Amino acid sequence: MPRMTPANCVKRKAPPMIPRYSRPDMVAIWSPETKFRIWFEIEAHACDAMADLGVIPRENAEAVWKARDVEFDVARIDEIEAVTKHDVIAFLTHLAEHVGAEEARFVHQGMTSSDVLDTCFNVQLTRAADILIKDLEDLLEALKRRALEHKDTVRIGRSHGIHAEPTTMGLTFARFYAEMDRNLSRMRDARAEIATGAISGAVGTFANIDPRVEEHVCDKLGLVPEPISTQVIPRDRHAAFFATLGVVASSIENIAVEIRHMQRTEVLEGAEFFSMGQKGSSAMPHKKNPVLTENLTGLARMVRSAVIPAMENVALWHERDISHSSVERMIGPDATITLDFALARLTSVVDKMLIFPENMLENMNKFPGLVMSQRVLLALTQAGVSREDAYTYVQRNALKVWEHRTDFKAELLADPDVTAALSPAEIEEKFDLGYHTKHVDTIFARVFGD
Amino acid sequence: MPRMTPANCVKRKAPPMIPRYSRPDMVAIWSPETKFRIWFEIEAHACDAMADLGVIPRENAEAVWKARDVEFDVARIDEIEAVTKHDVIAFLTHLAEHVGAEEARFVHQGMTSSDVLDTCFNVQLTRAADILIKDLEDLLEALKRRALEHKDTVRIGRSHGIHAEPTTMGLTFARFYAEMDRNLSRMRDARAEIATGAISGAVGTFANIDPRVEEHVCDKLGLVPEPISTQVIPRDRHAAFFATLGVVASSIENIAVEIRHMQRTEVLEGAEFFSMGQKGSSAMPHKKNPVLTENLTGLARMVRSAVIPAMENVALWHERDISHSSVERMIGPDATITLDFALARLTSVVDKMLIFPENMLENMNKFPGLVMSQRVLLALTQAGVSREDAYTYVQRNALKVWEHRTDFKAELLADPDVTAALSPAEIEEKFDLGYHTKHVDTIFARVFGD
Amino acid sequence: MPRMTPANCVKRKAPPMIPRYSRPDMVAIWSPETKFRIWFEIEAHACDAMADLGVIPRENAEAVWKARDVEFDVARIDEIEAVTKHDVIAFLTHLAEHVGAEEARFVHQGMTSSDVLDTCFNVQLTRAADILIKDLEDLLEALKRRALEHKDTVRIGRSHGIHAEPTTMGLTFARFYAEMDRNLSRMRDARAEIATGAISGAVGTFANIDPRVEEHVCDKLGLVPEPISTQVIPRDRHAAFFATLGVVASSIENIAVEIRHMQRTEVLEGAEFFSMGQKGSSAMPHKKNPVLTENLTGLARMVRSAVIPAMENVALWHERDISHSSVERMIGPDATITLDFALARLTSVVDKMLIFPENMLENMNKFPGLVMSQRVLLALTQAGVSREDAYTYVQRNALKVWEHRTDFKAELLADPDVTAALSPAEIEEKFDLGYHTKHVDTIFARVFGD
Amino acid sequence: MPRMTPANCVKRKAPPMIPRYSRPDMVAIWSPETKFRIWFEIEAHACDAMADLGVIPRENAEAVWKARDVEFDVARIDEIEAVTKHDVIAFLTHLAEHVGAEEARFVHQGMTSSDVLDTCFNVQLTRAADILIKDLEDLLEALKRRALEHKDTVRIGRSHGIHAEPTTMGLTFARFYAEMDRNLSRMRDARAEIATGAISGAVGTFANIDPRVEEHVCDKLGLVPEPISTQVIPRDRHAAFFATLGVVASSIENIAVEIRHMQRTEVLEGAEFFSMGQKGSSAMPHKKNPVLTENLTGLARMVRSAVIPAMENVALWHERDISHSSVERMIGPDATITLDFALARLTSVVDKMLIFPENMLENMNKFPGLVMSQRVLLALTQAGVSREDAYTYVQRNALKVWEHRTDFKAELLADPDVTAALSPAEIEEKFDLGYHTKHVDTIFARVFGD
To answer: Which CATH architecture has domain A370-430?
Structure first.
């Protein structure tokens, strides 16, 4: 029978390192060093408040700040924790090594570990949100630039993967902009949701600590005091936070799938950046794979996978159970680091992606003129042709185009039934691309403002 | 080999009936009658706008309103759809039967089916949100009433299911109030997210219809025009909407689990309402089961199950594919109807639930006075006893209580080491419940305002 | 404050009707009539076993079978339930109306409601599994037929949506066959998992009923006795069952996505069946949408959405709580009905789908011969050309094809560096499609047997 | 605008380290060293097979084995990959540094990267499965031992958290045994599902490599050749694998929740191991928290969170896209490492958990004798008392017990209506615990065999 011993079992208390798809600023938020630094600030500010309230001596509060510039020694804290079996006590012990045991003796007075842990976690999530907000702003900038650049680049709009009516590449970028702008707004709401702190004691009654300590600490850390906490900050806030990350990730997938479709060999209307000059890849220019956006598709699944566990975390038993903790040790770093990486990668892809307008026109004309068949059908009925007859006229010409790739307009012009109803000029007009792009400016004004 | 025939296969186009856990007002939103009524309004308002723009004759627009008071015949529309194989065309055909074929000939001009379907779906979700908002307001009222009623009803706070420090039942209700108040705010945001409409044509370019038609229709239906749509309204909105429902559901589970715990035979601090006078159930008064809150626990899982499919719906191909549709036909009604039912059931449970204050005191004193051991420990160290000695003193007395259920205070008063450090009055003071409840008013003021 | 009253709240006890995407045989399994019929059989067989054991009189057991051919009156049972507030009691009361109150008085003796409900649910799931197994067998037949039909129909294989090397359409069907054959095997395992029954009393101790009653009932219903139950059959079985449905659904999505890709306007290598002769759709032959497979994509999401709730159902409190029940009332019918419908729809799509071999060749030659560039590169290095030089030779010719759509083979034959290393015949051989299809028979033998 | 540069972006190609909740043997499976070792074996065995087939020279195949005992230098391979931007090429380059460039020149001939990557991944998952199978066997051993130990330890069975009828602690362990035994069987199936390999080339046609190479490599690695692969091994296998992990995790949660309930202050029928002698924790003996099982509850959520992404991975585009890859880089290690840790932790908890039989009896008698009220009710009606009267008699005595905690049996014996129907001996007999435990041996025989 196996036994759980230090030798065969590692429970990592320090925040996890996730060196897969990550960027250093976000990773740094989840480092043990950052965590201990935040713990320090919580404790030090709490001491200040307690000194203000006359609960502890002023000099003891001031003494704590001697550790202001200390980079806490993670290995040393781990060492102490191996003995104390308690992460916060280990930290406090180490802090006392810097501050002096005597001077430090009022640190953490009346507080419970969760006061530190939960407030710290929300500081980390708030900082993570700040990075994600910046990521979204960067992405929006790239999307806007590409939207303006390709405002009038005509391509076929597709429903069901099938050619429908013309649209423009700029509208595609613009709708991604609008979607990500909504995500920016959601992310800001999510940040506000999570920017709370609690210093309220073992069951949230402030029995051993004055509520004004909480107010002071939160104020200093840029947080709002949690109006009512138990031992913990209520987890509906975190559920809403991670749900928002899941929505943002789904939008990333949306853009990624569009680009993957554009890069298909048969479509080739766009591609992740590559340089023809490069050796290697260019030996097989047709074999340039959209691996970045495929990767983003997978990363979106992973960010989404945090949503349900975060929701399952809401129903804690009574004033708290600790089932949420292992979940958050994983999804806290994993979901934010992955989403940060994904947003930055997407920004880079959007920023540099290749657009092939000629191919767009070629695709649109795969069955020359056929995408205009609906307009012609409508024009015929409006010109007084019965619905049945109009169908028949359009159908017989459309089938020629479908089967022989002849030109639909030429076929129509050669069909006496059609020309009996519509003049050549009228037929010609139905093939005007400007008809489809006439409101692009209106839409751009809606999305980007005037 | 089986063949899909009308005989062995029913694809129900009409909104589903879900007669499981449902309430009629929410069910009505998803009825075919409601849907056709909304379709009618969209088409009729669109005609008005087109008449205003001079695109269609005024009299044709006015003629459509002849059907203003018609209750559309769902069976007849189904009959037509069996021929046309297209739900919107079937409806339009039926509408023409009321309006007159000639008068109706401009109805839907320049529009695409999705203009009607998507705008209608958002009207339905918006109305569903209105009911859910009302549900939350009702729940908040019940929670507030119970919170005030039990503001000072002392019970033991528990972390990990283990007795920690005293709190009050009112604080429990108050934190549920605060949580549901956040949910109310989230639900209002979700409503705003989803209250958009689109009348923008086959790929969202307004090629065949003026944007002012969209503006007019949205205005009349209480919606905001979607700034940029494709053939469809972007699905990140819906993902955010259903994610919010999932958060609300998780909070329902949170309250449900608390009540289920309270009603456990060994705890019995509260219970779903039952009357002792009733025949039957009262034959076994100990066997009153928290079936309503257990049911809510399950319903929460179901509402949450809509979240991931809604997020998977975001990444549609190009200007739309229809993969989202079957998902939404199910989760649209299912998630809103279930959540409405769950909120109403929870309100009823909260409103009527039995609270047993005597049992709360009895539970708190299962090991008499032992929940105060931490305060005593702190007091001893503050009185100058070393940490080791303080532990020893507390431990030896606590173990007596643990093993023999004697009274902790009495044991302390009889321990000369303890009384050497603390006076009887000081010891007595550590067992004062008022110490733990002194900030309840502060917290209530934070939650409910002054 | 709203109150839950019969007027404003409907808790449907009868199995739900889900008339969305459904087929009648599967729907019938979940009808109230079927449920009551199964309940009857459980009770009647239990009486037989109790009579065999001498626990109840033989004539009472025999009397129960008077209801053998009764179609139970659902409305009447609902009426009784409105009074008794208990579904099983309502049924037993109604049963007694058929059997006679005196004769029926030993029915259900020593049993608990869950004995009936859980055993019935597993009978329903087992029957649902039988239909799904048949569905899979039908699908396999269609896939095999299409695989054999298109064993040698060459198309380009694609990785990342980009042309890679040639393969055949038959291999595509064959791999779907192999995947669905694994699903058939999983489905059979899932059926075995769920084909258990329990008649073990209030907490599973058989205190009031002999285990031999359980054995007899299970034997008659084609079930295996659950080795150890509590009040309920353990829910890990159901979690495994619904997880299997989720895997099958994901495979449906896999095939659906392939077909959707094939039908894209630019690809057009296949399509869901449509007839050119049809009026209407053929007016715009280019606008035939893969709506069935898009629908399947959405349905797959819905079947998958049952997996997590089913897993959350496993951790019931002690000997049971009833949180699983509302979940199962929904996912039981929903997931099986939807999957049955989806499998049948997929079979129909596969059976009738159009395959366009000419377009496959045309697509493969979009950049004429370029898909063979890797073979040429390899051949050059094998002929002693350095890796750098080989790259250069291939690259300069490939770029011409990429840019001007000239023929790659012709370019190579005109390149003296290439022809210095490879003879014309050798070059020619690199473009032989047979090279790529030479092991198709081997693979078919693996998949379909010899 | 941020740019993705080596400086600000780390895409870790090497298998991730997840030092959270982990054990070294499982972590080792996912180390870069293990991965490269498996890659080496795949390549070396493939060379052997190719030499056997006469495709490459025997001496080159033999030369590869010079690296048999090499521990591959991960840093060096990373260094090469920084240049080549391709993990497999980097490895092959490094391998050539050991084998000699000339000798190594046939390594990987005709193979595609996925042949190596996918086969390696399945080797890793198979080995992970082996550990998980061993974990389950260890857990079963602990559960069986505790079941036998407490076969006759009577405790109250609970439905809805409410006292129902007596059962035994041994039955609780026995049902967990049966559940985990089913999981063992599922895990073995999952292992068989995933133990396949593929060496089939760019699109799975074996165009450039003989199928016998695949057979040889698989044979040597303990795998079965994948009957039909594309560029990748089909992902329904992986979906089924991770779904199984999700079911196992849900069963862990089931046991964890039971133990958490047992340890509640008010219940206290069992507890995670702690020693009263310990300093610290024993100062507050009532405050021993079930943190290990709470942790397991959270870990179960995390393992389950891999299920949906794994299912979303099934629908790859055509012969493969790489969206699955980032998902698997995370869930491969995360889910298996977490589940391994959780199983081992659970085994330790079960093995050492404290059981408090006296408290079980005390709890059962919270309302003395009341749990027998249903038996008494039944006995009264069987003795000829009408159902109404029987209810009345039981109810009036039960209410006394409920309100005053008197003894139910004593109340009954003092009630003349009751004693008119039942003799004292008959009443006495209804309180015999043996009535409830008489079939425990039968159930144990079913679960553990005779």
So the answer is: Orthogonal Bundle (1.10)
